[in-house]
């Protein structure tokens, strides 16, 4: 069925035509003409023949003369130039069309990520004018390889005949699930036929199935005369369209699977499709086939996204405080019915406040506050109290139910790990509250700022896994792949924003759009700021602000200096977060000594993981074999990281001095312990040296050596 | 800098050259030749000039004669043909190279989804021979638009000068983060230079920056003579390479952002790059630019996948039984230390069994078992007991800790919804256990089969959301988008497999690979089988098996008939799942009447959602306004769905008859209730009719109408 151009070449002119065995009288019989003699020569393009020039029947003679031959040969040179020009021009046109087809197809394929149907549709539509045909159809093949097990049961039981129809080379049942049909003649018309019947005109010939089965390019140059496929004899549809010739090609993806069949009908000039048409359409279908990667990716991307959405919803479901848990705190059962949302908020607030620990029980305004004697449930209640005491609950119309649910959900978001658990999360929130209120930093901030800052502080380590950023990177966790820097912090931030997106726990639900955006930005600033790696970036900037405000006699001047400049506000805020995050180091010694051990224990656990999972030696801080050096390391941490923070804050606001005092007090304790350990180490070292010297003396005595210097090496 | 071909055409030969204002003596001065007269004519391709032919200085005369002109004109015709052939051939070559470049580039771009660096690298490498240049370099641009807030602080505070360097048209700072350098001369050499210094030879001229800034194509035809850019005068690197001419193009994506700059050095034939080189490289860079969609998609796909992984891990963390919860059941605190995994399993089994309800308390072998008096925690223990009684725990080496953790985790996977909660999940597992043991269906199955079937039954509705498949579809939930059919069932199946993938809760952890695959397949069969939409597909197949085994006198024959055929085993298994799933309908009336209400309540809740969320009228079954019709609907459900299942199972195994009896008993109760309701409806209807007739009579009396027939229409 492939179109073959055959050129017959005859170098020596034949003098007696009818006697020559190469002579065919076919044309003579058709035309009634009598060929007597022929003078013929080929037109060559290098080694490739372009055509043949023939002079037939010498006028005024019985045969062509030598002179005729000479003249003819001269003429051939010129004819070759003309033929070559024609041929080259034609091939230029073909190549030009091919690159246009490729470029336009690419333009559409890369326009957007979409499904195969739309992609093929768009691409073919764009290049339609270059195809020079009257109609085309694209059949899309079902890519399913395996059937559902319950659909296979009847076959396997022998109740149903197994499929015996045609299959693609990779074993799929051939099933065109969709046809895109484009009639380019007169009024253009596109039709998309989903699940076309087998007797649809575009399929009934069996040609697309044949192409899908074998992967061949089929060029039927005269459909009417072809007896392999039975095309309809009359018009194929109501448009009156009649098929004259057909070029059909498989569309094959990079995995060598046939994904569809493209069929082109009736070349525009009425001639059959030729080799060049095959070349152009093959380039097109090859490109389209490859580009199915994009459609497959589109599908994969969608499926991954849906799976992500499903998992995200499950996380929310599993971590959101249940009605029973909310009830536990609100304790509204007696007073209100099942649906507290409908209740009067002021009544709810009263009730809620009645259920949270009193100031006299736990004083949240103290820098020295300790969570240790408070239950985790009571800490949730204390967290709620902070917002009431800030005065933001009523101001920003936070429903009591939502506030409770949010706080409880935040608690549930923290994992039950050694240090970075809910107790730590709570402490950071409480310290933020304390810095604003007791530390009087609030004067620089709006109520909305304060609201966002305390909320962000409570969320700042939510879903922490007890391992640090470096561990995420080294273990190439999905978190590390997703976030380039501040890995965990970005995750905590994402989590806090997920809660804002979930209406039933969104404490910011009553805010206006602009206010809500402010809250989101402040969460960015506050939560990312807890990445200690960024601490050194902001140190100097913070110090400059403290330096600038220190000499100001008038408080108003300092307030204006800070609160009129959003950047200064943010820098102080960021440093406050660090102050909160590290605040355990400022707590009374009996608290700090316990908490420091928890921090250390979590580090050691990471160290264990590094050894077992990553097969690496942990740094001393995370090496439980070096736990004796904890006091020394604490001193170092105080000197190189913490001291600056609390010293500067105390200089900034004298109300914060208790934190610095606490820090210094703990420094004394850690130093004492470090000294005791050092004394032990020194004692052992001294003992070792003493023994060494003794040994040396002994050796000298025995050897009778030279002035106490031994030449032997003492090995222990 | 663009290459311009300019043709000067002169139609009338100029006779006195030096006097002619158009004459330039430039060449004469260069060569020392004296031009006296010129005969010139253009070579035209239609309206486009191809070139000029000039005859200079008539020999044997002072000027060209008319005869010269005539001869010259004749010659021009032939010269035009030759020039045209040369031109067309050249253009054919250009177009051919262009389509080759496009096709090869496409071939690489669609080979795999990858990042921009690798994609550009592969594509350019593939087409390198078509580029006909000695070297090329590709600079990739940083796509970051916004800086991190903390990096902007110093700028906003005025401490650091804002960036004033060149920017891309879309406002990005120009920063080449990577250069791919390919030296095609002599020994080919590819280099990838990450974060190249600004004085790197490929950047130092400023040309790539200039291109990135303006988006212009720059063709520098003679680098040495160009004074706009200061190229290095000596060799650019140790290879001794010297730049002679340069063609530099921006690579622009579909969003019109410049993503990189491609620069080609030194055309192979030593000539400057021409318009056709520009065309080919432009086609290439345009294609590459568009194809960045693939790289962006690759990035997006990865990020989505990482987010999915993060969420999936969070789900597992949040739903996996905690050590405290496991402890609650194992109760090993006194006997063992913190780590029960290390303990002797037989001791652990004993301990576990001691903590689960005794047979006398709750008889799990009864078809009439009711969960209602049992606490949810005890149901977890009962679930564990099933596996012990099946004898699979010790046989398949399921650690007691893992079994406990799995069962508790399954419980936590069920949501606390009205009907499809843990209690339902438990009941289906218990009924499966009962069908195998009490119903004696176990004889067809291996121990491994039984193990998998009971496990699958417990998991079969895990994470159900209280709405059915149709609701998922109508609300276009992510679940519906992900799964084409059996939407929720596929989700429950996925969940059950997630648990198998999590080692600490994988009860199948000790199985061999083949056994594990069997278990997975049986989960597919069992869990998908609970989609009632598939029930009608398997009905007849099941009935045939029952029909075939019924006449078999010898039990062994029946066992062989079923157990030697994996399909029959699966069909019975699938129908068992249906029997388990619907088993509430066979329970004692006091249980069924309560459970039926829970099922109905969940349906009504869905109906409410359909009304509120989807704005649709629910079907009667889900319409709480039609709750009175529940008994009637229950009768219908029994008759059209349930009856077949239990009737056939009773016929298959007489041991299962209690279920069918239970069903029939409930049928009687529901019928009674339906009749009572129907009687009420009838009574109201009769009353309505009576009143109507009375009214009619009255009307007749008043109107004195014709034989009691009123012509007025009575409207209530």
TrEMBL record, chains A, B:
Binding site for Zn(2+) 2: 461
Enzyme class: hydrolase
Binding site for AMP: 420-424, 461, 581, 634
Cofactor(s) essential for the protein: a divalent metal cation
Chain segments carrying region Disordered: 693-716
GO biological process: signal transduction
Binding site for Zn(2+) 1: 424, 460-461, 581
Segments forming a coiled coil: none
Note describing how the cofactor binds: Binds 2 divalent metal cations per subunit. Site 1 may preferentially bind zinc ions, while site 2 has a preference for magnesium and/or manganese ions.
Protein name (record): Phosphodiesterase
Protein's organism: Sinocyclocheilus grahami
